[in-house]
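queue> pop job 88
queue> type: inverse folding (structure -> sequence)
queue> payload:
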């Protein structure tokens, strides 16, 4: 009977030993910690814009290639403008005709002048006759009807003369207006040539060319991308949960997808104040501390934005931090639960502001 009791007690001891929880231990230590926000993005040229075509036509000549530096007024692309040349030629011919008609010796004005001279001569003759018949009527040498006819002839010829003078003024004004319109039409036609010649408006770098020689370009289509020749920026997408941590001037460690295991230093230079619904992120820009040949516009990259940094603080491994900012603290044979106040949280470490002391031992269940 006693033997059976001993066996039972030993079995219970083995069972309790098997159920005992196993933990991994770590010491609270002091050291530096860095908090960083991860972001993806790309290299973009600064102050870029798209050059678009103002007319339809085939590109007959391209005077630049990617990475060229262009200056103000430099002709970059030429479009076929045969139809525009025809319009210019027609406008130039119309101007020549208008100059002929507007000249003082033009056939139209000369004819009106001749008619005016004839009308003036007739008016003078009729005036003399009317005066003569008035005197004759005073001496009863002519009849009243004859006198009235002479007065009517003078009145009619004078009216015709005045009418021809107004006709000359009107015709002269019209040909002058036609001349001005012809000049304006020629200027407009010649100005239309600029729509077939795409020129630079400043000092820029050609980053991309979308249309090549021989390709058809329609009005409003993109032809090339140009931008600031001396500056490129890092364009980053930041998620909603991290944007509050981003501030101007923060350090950025950049790794280009084309150059793994090599980093470049940059600093936050602009934070856009709006949310991008398309990619569900905020846009942030950074400037490289130093520009190198590896930094090519369009290159994809990964970046870490340094949002917090301390040289000497209490730290625990991040994997030891439980939910609700709790940790398991070794206290004799049984662990205690301690609530801590955290500061900087990195990928590996958590800063402890309150709740633990240096050299405390914390536990993690295996």
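queue> result:
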């Amino acid at each position: 009977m006693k033997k059976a009791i001993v066996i039972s007690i030993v079995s219970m001891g083995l069972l309790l030993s098997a159920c005992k929880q196993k933990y991994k231990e770590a010491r609270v230590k002091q050291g530096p910690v860095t908090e960083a926000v991860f972001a993806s993005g790309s290299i973009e040229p600064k102050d870029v814009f798209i050059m678009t075509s103002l007319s339809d036509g085939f590109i007959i000549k391209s005077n630049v290639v990617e990475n060229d530096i262009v200056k103000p007024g430099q002709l970059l692309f030429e479009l076929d403008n045969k139809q525009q040349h025809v319009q210019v030629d027609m406008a130039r011919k119309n101007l020549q005709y208008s100059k002929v008609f507007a000249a003082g010796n033009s056939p139209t004005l000369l004819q009106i002048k001749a008619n005016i001279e004839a009308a003036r001569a007739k008016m003078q003759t009729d005036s003399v006759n009317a005066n003569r018949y008035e005197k004759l009527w005073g001496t009863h040498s002519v009849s009243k009807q004859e006198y009235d006819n002479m007065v009517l002839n003078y009145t009619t010829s004078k009216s015709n003369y005045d009418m021809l003078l107004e006709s000359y003024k009107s015709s002269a004004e019209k040909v002058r207006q036609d001349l001005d319109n012809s000049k304006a039409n020629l200027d407009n036609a010649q100005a239309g040539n600029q729509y077939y010649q795409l020129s630079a408006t400043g000092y820029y770098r050609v980053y991309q060319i979308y249309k090549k020689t021989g390709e058809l370009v329609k009005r409003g289509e993109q032809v090339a991308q140009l931008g600031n020749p001396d500056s490129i920026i890092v364009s980053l997408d930041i998620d909603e949960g991290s944007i509050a941590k981003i501030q101007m001037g923060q350090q950025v460690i950049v790794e280009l997808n084309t150059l793994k295991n090599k980093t470049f230093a940059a600093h936050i230079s602009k934070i856009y104040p709006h949310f991008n619904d398309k990619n569900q992120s905020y846009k942030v820009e950074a400037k490289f501390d130093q520009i190198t040949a590896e930094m090519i516009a369009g290159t994809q990259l990964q970046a870490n934005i340094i949002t917090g940094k301390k040289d000497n603080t209490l730290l625990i491994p991040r994997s030891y931090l439980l939910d609700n900012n709790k940790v398991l603290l070794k206290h004799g044979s049984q662990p205690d639960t301690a609530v801590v106040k955290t500061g900087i949280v990195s990928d590996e470490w958590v800063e402890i502001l309150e709740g633990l002391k240096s050299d405390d031992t914390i536990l993690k269940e295996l």
